[in-house]
Amino acid sequence: MRSGRIKILGVPIDDITEPEAVALVQAMIERGGPHQICTVNPEFIMEAQRNSAFSSVLQASDLNTPDGFGVLLAARWLGTPLRGRVTGVELTLRLAALAAERGYRIFFLGAGPGVAEAAAAVLQQRWPRLQIAGCYAGSPDPANDEEQRQIIAAAQPDILLVAYGHPRQELWIARNQPVLRIPLAMGVGGTFDYLAGRVPRAPRLLRRLGLEWAFRFVVQPSRWRRIIDAVPVFALTVVRQGRCKS
């Protein structure tokens, strides 16, 4: 296992802070592609227990950031505490700032029609020097891979953000990066929806208290199965693992 990397239910997670992640990203981009980043939360970890293809992607990823308060609690319970969270939303904002400063080009792939464009516009308004390589809703269906690869390759991005939701976005990246060879690709889940204002983000206080799941349950009750998987089922599974080790 890489130094500074722990495992929760077999899933590797890097003990890294936001500034460290940004510095590592810059090094990846300057070194050239392909690289893949995964922002690992409890849903990722539980999905990996039953999806071997997704588990393999997480094992091979260049960087797995700890995204989710439950991940921090689990790491502490297992005796391998992490120093903090690096969420997909915050890392996206950091990448946009870095790209505007360094002249990197970002491509926005996924989400609903028009959402990627709206998210890109929000970021460009905040960082006017940000270069948008392109926006495309696309599809995670492998039948569309070739068409999407051609569109993205023609845009020549340095950073590719993919919003198909896990595990489809991570599988898409792992499947297409060997051909695209973009310096940095990252799945961002619902980040485009948050940036575009289509879905409200939990208030900062709730995020600090680790209660984002409760906010999501209120505003998106259709996610109840995912929330159960990510909160009580994940917690019980981690507790059992900890007892087995003791």
Could you give the topology of this structure?
Layout: E1 5-8, E2 11-14, H1 18-31, E3 36-40, H2 42-50, H3 52-60, E4 63-66, H4 69-77, H5 88-102, E5 105-110, H6 115-126, E6 131-136, H7 145-155, E7 159-163, H8 168-180, E8 184-187, H9 191-195, H10 204-208, H11 212-219, H12 224-245
Parallel strand pairs: 3-4, 3-8, 5-6, 5-7, 7-8
Antiparallel strand pairs: 1-2
Beginning-to-end CA distance, first to last residue:
21 Å
| Cα radius of gyration in angstroms | 17 Å
Poorly predicted residue ranges: none
Strand order of the largest sheet: 4-3-8-7-5-6
Total of DSSP H or I helical runs spanning 4+ residues: 12
Which outline best applies? Answer: globular
Largest sheet: 6 strands, parallel
Percentage of residues in helical conformation? 40-55%
- Helices and strands, in order, run as EEHEHHEHHEHEHEHEHHHH
Task: Assign the structural class, choosing from mainly alpha, mainly beta, alpha/beta, alpha+beta, or little secondary structure.
Answer: alpha/beta
Mean pLDDT: 90
Approximate strand percentage: 15-25%
The counted number of beta strands is 8
